Amino acid sequence: MRSSHARADANVAKSHDAKSFLVALAIVHVAVAAKTNAKVLILGAGVAGLQAANTLKEKGVDDIILIEAEDHVGGRLVTGSAAGMPTDSAFWETDTKYPERNTLGQMLEQCNVDLANIGLSTRVFVDEYGKDVSTQAEARMKELTQKINKLKTDWTTGLLNESADLNMHAAVRLYGWHPQNSVDVAVEGWVFDSFLAPTEQSAANYLYLYAGPNAYSANQKYFSTGLGEVYSKAKLVNCMRDLVFSASDERLVLGARVTDVSYTSSGVTVTVDGGQTYRGDYAIVTFSLAVFQRESVAFQPPLPYAKRLVMNEFPMIPLTFVWARFDRLVDVDGTRYRFYVFANDHRLNWHWARDVWASVQNVTYDIIRFWIWGEQALRIERQSYNETLRELNELTTAAFGVAPVSVNVSSVNYDPLYGGCCRGWPIGATFAEFDLLRAPVADRVFFAGDAYQIPIYARAASISGKETASIVVDCMNGKSCAYPKFNNQTVTEPPCPTGGAVQFGLSLASVVIWALAFAACY
Is 303 a member of any domain? Predict the structure, then answer.
């Protein structure tokens, strides 16, 4: 376990190559672990953990210890490098429509991180030979949007609900949308897969995101893309760290992976690899859902049975970023931000960051980042470097007449700390289950992260970190320790099923899980 870190933000701005960028992000450690007791332990220094630390400080709670398995802060926003190329493994965005929920945007402004409204209108659809098929694609996009609007209307007026849930690809078939060719498939992939709802995800949740009280809005801002985005993310998380912790702060413990969490009605004890223990009155756990699903951390006593069930019901969405480097500019039309959508069987969504990279690094080559979702993402991570390079060579040579000289795969799906991009919403899941997913345990162990908010990504992690820290402060001051519910149904938490899952408002998927696990419970 380690604490103390070196300041590097000035060096980030002055970096001239990827190597110096990585040096700028490096954390200098000293073997100091003097502080082992605190009012609040925060487990994980991603966006949720950093936001929780900032919120606790704002509310006058400085007696904290933040424990992080990596040797740097940031979680999926700053995951490292390969072949001299910096990488990340997460999306972020903010939304000016709902300022009360724009926690991430407020932090970005406080940290002086530039916002860039790149606009999704920069998308270009190309076929496998590089031909621009955007006119055809946009016409079909308009048709699909009409079907979705009809679906939204039926959903908001009560004609559709969780009881009639299915994935969005199937839902629009009911309204007459049927893909006829690769362009249609690319259009559908852009709308449903690219940002919110891969194939196996719930239509009800997708519609909630677009038609519900926290709907995404047209004035939403995404941030500078590609390598410029990586620099911005590093600047943000380092700033969030520095707002709370000093350069030699024993309250920040890096390079310490949590192995055990023991809790009682009076407090929480956390053990990290190497055997060091930390004691707190409360704990805010910001682990990825994959950590619970893989049982990478032992809880004593085990988390309530119903909570473990819903933690396994909500999936982690597989996402892989593949960074491809080209030895010359792929396009010279001056467009700084652009999304490309390949209309072919690969269904890879990709965009470049040429101008951002050139402006920071003063070089003349392109870095293009590919997004790959679902089973394709898992396949890419499993295959060899040469296989990935060869696959991208075929795609980009056919489309643009240029092949990448190197690639880097940001492999988070098989990483035990992450297990994927973000939390999905399974078909048939209810808000009652989501409330149970969010619920604290023993009024001592609280949960924060993008998995516990709607929507997902870093925006949700920031909202969740702030909300959870606020609830912990209320709890320690004798007020309610409960999260606000997304629905009005009361969800009880039996240690084992006692009368069937239906009484707890769980989906059919959970009923099956309960049935299969019944014998093991006893």
Answer: yes
